[in-house]
Amino acid sequence: MPSILPAPNLTRILKFVRAPAETASATPSELGALPEWDLSDLYKSPDDPAITNDLEQTEKTAKEIRENYQGKLARAASDGANLGAAISKYEALADQLGKLGSYVGLYYAGDQSDPERAKFYGDISEKLNRISTDLIFFELELNNIDEGQLKTALAHPDVSRFKPWIADIRKDKPHQREEIVETLFHEKSQTARGAWTRLFNETMTSLQFEVEGEAEPMGLEATLNMLTSPDGDRRAAASQALSVVFKDNVRLLTLITNTLAKDKEVYDRWHGFEDVADSRHLANRVEGPVVDALVEAVRAAYPRLSHRYYAMKAKWLGQDQLAHWDRNAPLPDKPERVIGWAEAQHTVLTAYAGFAPEMSAIAKEFFDKRWIDAPVRKGKAQGAFSASTVPSVHPYVLLNYQGKPRDVMTLAHELGHGVHQMLARQQGPLMAPTPLTLAETASVFGEMLTFKALLKETTDAKEKKAMIAGKVEDMLNTVVRQIAFYCFERDVHEARRAGELTSDQIGEIWMGIQAESLGPAIGLKPGYEVFWSYVPHFIHSPFYVYAYAFGDCLVNSLYGLYQEAHPGFVDKYFEMLKAGGTKHHSEILEPFGLDARDPAFWSKGLGVIEAMIDELEEMDKTV
């Protein structure tokens, strides 16, 4: 499980949890000029000679590291300077490999339907996989160094600067196997998990949906967007079109799900992980009981949160029960307007500046230097993400911007990731990456800053109610929906250990958990039983989803302290982001007096959502 391995996997920070933005009805003139990213800070083009040169150089360096240190790392540890030099070479190579992996991943994300891009992605990924095979020994041998010997080496300044990283990877030691086993898993990943994930990506990108009333077939992103159309008939038609196509492809998607779940079970068994989510918890550097406490707190709050809110929403829409396609319908009197790109930029940067000018200045670089890809394009990756790339370059943000308020929130969210990644890159390639449980902190905080700034400027009571309702829905999608997703994944992976699952069996698990989380005010109509099949996190990053709920509740608690003028909050916040992956969540939260191991921590975060629902109930009496 070496951390240097440069799999070009963008889903580590993929954002696809909120309801999609409304229908893409805005014209180019309304949106203004939307930026497309300039990837030349990585490489100029797929034909850039630097790619070939860097592949050759990284291959040479990887072999040199193997020749110089394999079987000798413990001996090198007897001299701190030697061990420090070895780790520094390893770190520098991590940056080079990560740069290559980042470029091919981002270039592919720009159009996953292009066979030439897909081939380029596959070819370079195979080469990176082969190069990094020579490095598997490094962290395995580092973890086998005697504690006393390592303690002596850590006294040397060339080694001590890597102390957080060394302490972190030694947590993997109980689950690491001999080099030949780790090498086999690594080499087979390209034709196992990697291949099935790519099949899913390209399948979903190629799907076309014939929506009744639409002149031409639509892609997945645009069809999902219609589920927030103000027109109920269009929402129903979009849901029907999604169901039809998902059912047509459900055998393939079921096979992918079964295969990847079995692949994970094999990996977990060989590496000594007992619970289906243990490997994710270890990767997130969070304890299983902490996650269990979060899940229990959210499930216990379903009646006070999602059940109560959707009952109110059904009343607002004049219905006793909402069909599942009405869950994210806009309110009847919600103001509808297109927010141009220039206004979106101003809104987010102004909100960030109100918190800290430095935060706004970092975010502005993304606009000024073309680090954002905003337009909707055929074949482009769905949703939105911020890819950290490597510390020697900078992050890139992908959006599918369509000019709606929720798109502005998404921009604020992904720029929060970008700011976090920019601040953390001082830690270097090995220590800048943040565990998923903390990776959502800056993004959700930036989103909250933007929402509060917009709300403060709003004087119309109906518009304010619609904004609060929209924010509540986003929070329910981030907390309730993601915990439901986590529970679904647990049940699927646990059931898969007993044998293959049919599409109907997976659908039954999905429907039961969705009914529990959404409550009686949402009617799950026929066709919804296959909606599990398009969720990318289930394929890309099993059990990733609870990190969103963790981050949202954490930010709710942090934002409460900010509003209460907690002493030195801004400075502490920036220090938290700059820490990257060098600190455990308990160390990160300690300066704020917060502790995720305390059940009251989760109650405090969930209480913010509950209070907003209370506010909506009060507004109902006057608006």
Written overview of the protein:
The chain has 623 residues and is an all-alpha fold. It has a domain at 10-14 and 37-194: Oligopeptidase f, N-terminal domain (Butyryl-CoA Dehydrogenase, subunit A, domain 3), CATH 1.20.140. The chain is 61% helix and 2% strand. The chain is built from 30 helices and 6 strands. The chain has helices at residues 28-31, 49-69, 73-76, 80-109, 115-133, 136-143, 147-153, 157-160, 163-169, 179-188, 193-206, 220-225, 232-248, 250-270, 278-284, 288-301, 306-316, 341-355, 357-368, 405-424, 436-439, 441-457, 461-478, 480-496, 503-518, 536-540, 546-563, 569-578, 585-589, 599-620; strands at residues 14-15, 322-323, 372-373, 384-387, 396-398, 522-523. The strands form 2 sheets. The chain has a 4-stranded mixed sheet with strand order 1-4-5-3, with helices on one face. A hairpin with an 8-residue loop joins strand 4 and strand 5 (396-398). Helix 4 (80-109) packs antiparallel against helix 5 (115-133) and helix 19 crosses helix 20 (405-424). The longest helix has 30 residues, at 80-109. It is globular, with a radius of gyration of 24 Å. The termini are far apart. 48% of the residues are buried.
Q: Any chance you could write out the topology, listing elements then pairs?
A:
Layout (H helix, E strand, L loop, with lengths): L13 E2 L12 H4 L17 H21 L3 H4 L3 H30 L5 H19 L2 H8 L3 H7 L3 H4 L2 H7 L9 H10 L4 H14 L13 H6 L6 H17 L1 H21 L7 H7 L3 H14 L4 H11 L5 E2 L17 H15 L1 H12 L3 E2 L10 E4 L8 E3 L6 H20 L11 H4 L1 H17 L3 H18 L1 H17 L6 H16 L3 E2 L12 H5 L5 H18 L5 H10 L6 H5 L9 H22 L3
Parallel strand pairs: 2-6, 3-5
Antiparallel strand pairs: 1-4, 4-5
Helix pairs in contact: 2-4, 2-5, 4-5, 11-14, 16-30, 18-19, 18-20, 18-22, 19-20, 20-22, 22-27, 23-24, 23-30, 24-25, 24-27, 27-30
